[in-house]
Amino acid sequence: MQPPAVPPVADRRPTSREIHGHTRVDDYEWLREKDSPEVVAHLEAENAHTQERTAHLADLRQSIFEEIKARTRETDLSVPTRNRGHWYYGRTFAGKEYGATCRVPVSDPDDWTPPTPAEDCAPDEPALPGEQVLLDLDALAEGHEFFSLGGSAISPDGNLLAYSTDTVGDERYTVRVKDLTTGGLLDDEITGVIGGATWDRAGEHLFYTTVDDSWRADKIWRHRLGTAQADDELVHHETDGRFWVGVGRTRTDRFIVVAAGSKVTSEYRYLDADHPELGLQVFAERLEGVEYSLDHAVIGGEDRFLVLHNASGPDFEIGTAPIAPTPIADLDPLVPHDPEVRLEDVDAFAGHLVVHQRSNGLTQLRIIELGADGPGDDYLVEFDKPLYTVGSGGNPGFFQPTVRIGWTTMAVPSSVYDYDVRTRELTLLKQAPVLGGYDPADYQEHRLWATAEDGERIPISIVCRRDAREDETMGSAPLPTLLYGYGAYEASMDPYFSVARLSLLDRGAAFAIAHVRGGGEMGRRWYDDGKLMRKQNSFSDFVACARHLVDTGWTTPGTLVAEGASAGGLLMGAVANQAPEMFAGIVAGVPFVDALTTMLDATLPLTVTEYDEWGNPEEDPAVYEYMASYAPYDNVAARPYPPILAETSLNDTRVLYVEPAKWVARIRATNPEADVLLRTEMSAGHGGVSGRYKAWHDRAFSLAWMLDRMGLADC
């Protein structure tokens, strides 16, 4: 038997800091020097060690990659979306990483049925008659290890395309403008942009956002086509370090909207294209703890601002206001606050409103029809499955009579529907193809409920093959299980389908999502109960879900693997310290495991804007004590840890690579026998590698390691 490989050993170079009467000693802060050849060499040594320790899984990794590839229709077409005079869609091609964005002209202005390509359309032929390739993404990515399209926006007249690209992974994008009538690029080039750019109604200016040294989006600029970036006008500068900004245009095209927000407070400004002389106006002054959004609607023939806000209750209500600055207290109620229904978003169209909401842990899509006299029928779009995720998107036209809907379950692939508000007909346009004879009926889905330490009921979504258990009763034989969790920022981890996940399920494993507090699955209170001084609830909820799966016979600690990423990586680090005996392995992706160090340094990316989520341990001794009680890096101890795979990216600007690098070094130093691996992508950002084939290989690596921990590597 080959002896285990010897892992890299990071030197201990202690630094210390006195704070609130405590001395914090950190042996590995020197790993923060990203440009140091010594640090790079250490990360590369960690990568080599990880490859050596997982070499026995090489064939399994390749098999999983081939399974993902075989189940995916590599040459495919998205459902076209109508925007003014064209249908827009994306294409993918076998053997290519990124694909292309295309459009064709609308042939009948009264026909809202998307065109469909011929079944036997060849990759080198137009998918639809009159196809125009807007962006060849593989050509743009050529010569770059990493490539990301930040956004693309068509000018109102349809003749210009503004698009942004990142070829490093640090999410600083460069905006270029393509003339779609000639195919050439304009001279305009805007660098250092976060995301994409927004056209004004006249198609003469672009609005965009830049960040400060701490990676906080703090400035909105206006760029006039044909001029240098140095001449751009600063439209808004947000000086409060807790707030970040963004810019967009209402669906009606009338308003440019500038949003400023912290984790708990919002403020919107608007620029009226009908009255540009008024300049940028504040709609409602910021009030601490009051969040709101702003849209433009026409209700009963009258122009109104549509405002989603939480001034009347934590789960939000919808109000309206005249086209003028208006205090939140003076809004006219449209949809009142309901503690049983969390209103999450609202979109205005000429004939209806679309409300995104959730109730009892499930997403819902609500239609409010608009007539000549104002709001009319108010109802939910119904589906026949008990456990699903639904939302709307790809609806750019204010006057469109249809609502483009996305729907999925953990067993049913992502499905695209059009809902016709006039006829109330729901039409399935496309279900993501899964090749190889996939049948959703071969899988079973359940909603389970665990009981937390404080008595709260925590939902769990779980899926497995129908034949993986002896029968469908809860007393069936246990299954190796992957339990996923996040639990922060009110982000909901709703049930979703994954082609890659089938490589787990078809080998006899189950996949579960623990909908822990800190997320938004059960309304705003769910978020409030898992943040700041109640963050421990996220961790104890996850452990409670793990125990429930074990106690009810779904799985065993010896075959239960946990996974989480980013803030979910913090969750993984915490449960590794608090309940290591529950897990056979833990996968922590871009993990926020050195949370206390980060939150003690206001110069680091995003720290100040995160105070409303985690607290300010530098200013508040109580916050310091509380964070120190759970921060994974600070709580590494001489205890048995389950095997851990930590995955990160060198160019991540959200959770710096140094956090998992330090965490792994401390675990190894404290527990020399610990089986802990670090894998760093040296040319990627927070989202990992770019390109679908690279992403499939990346996921195959993680899945192979999980299967090995579950005892299914040979299945």
Kindly describe this structure.
It is a single chain. By secondary structure, the chain is α+β, with helices and mostly antiparallel strands. The chain contains twelve helices and 38 strands. The chain has an eight-stranded mixed β-sheet, sandwiched between helices. A seven-stranded antiparallel β-sheet has the order 8-9-10-11-12-13-14, with no helix packed on it. Strands 3, 4, 5, 6 and 7 form a five-stranded antiparallel β-sheet that branches. The radius of gyration is 26 Å and the shape is globular. The two termini are 22 Å apart. 45% of the residues are buried. The mean pLDDT is 95.
Summed over residues and divided by their number, the pLDDT gives a mean of 95
Would you report the number of β strands?
38
N-C termini distance: 22 Å
Radius of gyration: 26 Å
Strand content: 25-35%
Helix-residue proportion: 10-25%
Strand order, main sheet: write it out. 31-32-34-33-35-36-37-38
Q: Give a short account of the largest sheet.
A: 8 strands, mixed
Low-confidence stretches: none
Counted by DSSP, the helix tally is 12
Structural class: alpha+beta
Organism: Nocardioides deserti
Family: Belongs to the peptidase S9A family.
InterPro entries: AB_hydrolase_fold, Pept_S9A_N, Peptidase_S9_cat, Peptidase_S9A, Serine_Peptidase_S9A
Pfam families: Peptidase_S9, Peptidase_S9_N
Give the structure's gist in a few sentences.
The chain has 715 residues and is α+β, with helices and mostly antiparallel strands. The chain has twelve helices and 38 strands.
